[in-house]
Inverse folding.
């Protein structure tokens, strides 16, 4: 982030008509956004939500409460404006882009082979990167992909260690035997790829998914273009896990929109050194939690931009 | 709240294109709002923020980091549009009303006598009630009053017991010796009024303040008119404490906007049986935290109103 712009935003916060620090995280958000937008008064005129979608070979094991056809059905629902993210992105003033990636080609079963070959993984990274250009004020990343909390758990375990119990949760609502199967699938995946190189690319390619890889690509492009990012939940965080394990500062341009109800999300955010803005017990994905956070970010910037200073307002400082 | 409208809103949530319960507190908010607005699809077309302001005799003891003149200076700042609440109410689409109450007449020193006589207290209650009319979709209550965290601590202690250490915090930023003085002022107030009747009216009158009593009046009027309320922080919660101690269900039409950084706020919300929507380390008052919460409420209602059902969207239910 740009240090002079951060400093200018911090100096402005100190002069606004309120006790120093009394807007708490709203002040942090304003300073964060100033640094990445490289202006002392950040704005969200051009905010974009991008929802990547992909399908997963491991759905054959029954790891989700929903059938894999729902990925394409929900993409159609996004296109018609009927999903939560349509309403929530609208409420937060974000443009919505939906990017389905080869939905008719689920990833391979990563308990026995890599989810993607190298070309497929590179294509997904590029699709992600192409969703971002310089001049965006805020980028919300979200996803849709039946089965993708299983891939996310495998990414976390391969990146940060632990076992499947640490990383596997209910996702859209699988329980009982389904949850046991999900854990077993993750352990099989970890074992299958145990001797592969522990690079971010290989981890994403082997146990990720197309929409997850695209999120990683978009996040990297956002960094290149100085675009601040707000993340949705567990799967989005897992997309960063292989990169953050290799280079922790890769999350510097990222705000965690919320803590989801998915059990492992808190543990993951700690590993990513991110503190969530919201904790609303949400677990939908598709960018929904991040979109609510974007409304809070907009509030933070409104206060930063519009408030009077002590001198301007003739208010006695404490 | 209206049970059929709550039930209709709950039934609608169950049909929307998402796993059941996956929008977490956004679903609860929609159902809550439906019950109090008495319609299955609640809206915030007429949302109002009301900020009451008053002055406090106990500022003579140095209980605040700011001089008492700041109350009137900040009211002028509100009128000119330069305060945090102007920006945050605007971002949340709320109309803002500022109601200063007899700023040139600070309350009496409640360590030695009641803060208000009966007529003064009734006037403040009525001023609060008059700020609310039927047909409002949402009412945000906030306050401004240098010294009012001291009154708030006394209200909490007189309502819920404990000692001054439990209820006194830094407020706008008092520390060290000032904090000791503040605790002592609260203990003196409790002792002074120990033998007075423990009714809500007497507690509000003796250790409250005009803006605090007005908040209680507005909250009661909102209940009468079925207007859902979102509260700001510690002082607003303290305004309800005497009433909630006498009748816990009085908070049923209230959402706690946020958990503030004021140390005792979490303890107070537990006693009020309210779970805060946000935790952003804010401690400004003037309705600021509640206004950010109002933006979240708006997001919740947008999802509830605009989303397609599984049947409409042709999406397979789980």
């Amino acid at each position: 982030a740009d240090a002079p712009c951060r400093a200018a935003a911090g100096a402005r916060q100190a002069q606004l008509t309120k006790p120093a620090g009394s807007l708490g995280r709203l002040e942090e958000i304003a300073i964060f956004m100033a640094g990445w937008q490289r202006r002392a008064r950040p704005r969200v005129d051009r905010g974009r939500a991008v929802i990547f979608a992909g399908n997963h070979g491991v759905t054959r094991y029954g790891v989700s409460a929903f059938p894999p056809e729902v990925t394409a059905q929900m993409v159609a629902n996004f296109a018609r404006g009927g999903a939560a993210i349509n309403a929530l992105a609208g409420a937060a003033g974000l443009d919505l882009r939906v990017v389905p990636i080869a939905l008719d080609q689920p990833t391979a079963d990563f308990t026995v082979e890599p989810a993607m070959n190298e070309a497929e993984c590179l294509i997904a990274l590029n699709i992600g990167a192409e969703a971002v250009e310089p001049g965006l004020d805020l980028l919300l990343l979200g996803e849709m992909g039946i089965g993708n909390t299983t891939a996310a758990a495998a990414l976390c375990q391969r990146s940060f260690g632990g076992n499947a119990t640490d990383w596997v949760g209910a996702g859209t609502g699988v329980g009982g035997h389904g949850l046991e199967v999900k854990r077993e699938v993750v352990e099989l995946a970890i074992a299958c790829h145990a001797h592969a190189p522990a690079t971010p690319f290989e981890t994403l390619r082997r146990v990720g998914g197309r929409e997850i890889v695209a999120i990683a690509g978009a996040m990297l492009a956002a960094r290149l273009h100085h675009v601040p990012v707000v993340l949705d939940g567990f799967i989005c965080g897992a997309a960063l896990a292989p990169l953050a394990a290799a280079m922790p500062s890769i999350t510097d341009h990222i705000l965690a929109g919320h803590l989801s109800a998915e059990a492992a999300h808190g543990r993951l955010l700690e590993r990513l050194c991110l503190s969530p803005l919201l904790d609303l017990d949400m677990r939908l994905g598709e960018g929904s939690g991040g979109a609510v956070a974007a409304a809070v970010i907009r509030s933070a910037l409104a206060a930063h931009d519009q408030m009077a200073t002590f001198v301007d307002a003739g208010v006695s400082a404490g």
Summary: The domain at 45-298 of chain B is CATH 3.40.50.10210 (Rossmann fold). Chain B has one domain: 45-298.
